[in-house]
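Q: Got a minute? One more chain.
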Amino acid sequence: MNRIAIFASGAGSNAAKIIDHFKNHPKIHVGLVLASKANAGVINVAAEAGIASLLLEKDLFFNSSHYIDLLKEANIDFVVLAGFLWKVPSNLVQAFPGRIINIHPALLPKYGGKGMYGRFVHQAVVDAGEKETGITIHYVDEQYDHGEVIFQAQVPVEPGDTAETVAAKVHDLEHAHFPGVIEEVINLRNSR
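A: Always. Here it is, folded:
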């Protein structure tokens, strides 16, 4: 059984889709949800699904191996970032090489990096007059939004689109593709 830990900071809609996708999966299971904010909706998503959740303590996350030890004790095989706003520290990246996956709401390498999340990304896309945007699913390395790209999908940016309408289109792409791409990555890794 492959066990996934989901790291999130927000409402948890992507986490909910991932949890639902793997609910009855014979080989992949969401074992843990870790949130960076006490009021993150993802905590309720985990509770409703009967999945253990934890609130991350910032100092422990960035300055110790506490959560690495915890993930290993929980037999976690893969880490999935689903709207997680903190940069993953090097020790965590090194503890799960090629086994941390992120989703970004733009077509990297455009509109990535520190401060480029959520509405800020979509506003930047609209302000730049882009004709398309989308999602990037990628492996996590020591830099923001930088690791090897696994998958991208595009949507058009129409005249008159706002950050909000672009966000809705991108959200639909995230929900449509992220759980399946996670499954493909895990299956590929297990076939090696």
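A: Residues 2-191 form a domain with the Rossmann fold fold (CATH 3.40.50.170).
Q: Perfect, thanks.
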